[in-house]
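User: Fold this; tokens only.

Assistant: Input:
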Amino acid sequence: MTQDKTGVAVWMVGIIFGALAAVIHVLVPEQGLTFLWVMMTTMILGCWKREAPWRWILLVVPFVPIADIAHKLLRPQQVSRASMWGAVLIALVAVPGAYGGSYMRQMINNIFGTPNE
């Protein structure tokens, strides 16, 4: 794939990962699963495109609070305040995921001698 096609693909995959994180957060009552999913997906994106890992945080994380607010508007009796704060705290696990993936890619490049992108 060329650089342009890979760039568009990674952004589309990031949007899909964010939407899936929102679905997991709303449908599964376990916060830990959402945290693990967000960390895993931001790590994959950070490893895929290692420059500027902060953009993967900004791409994946906003889907979760937006979906939580939409769910609260549709079914106000089913959403707790803890769930709302958990949606905001997703950003805390996205940071080590994205930067960890970026550093992992840098380490792989250093060990195997692949050129920097």
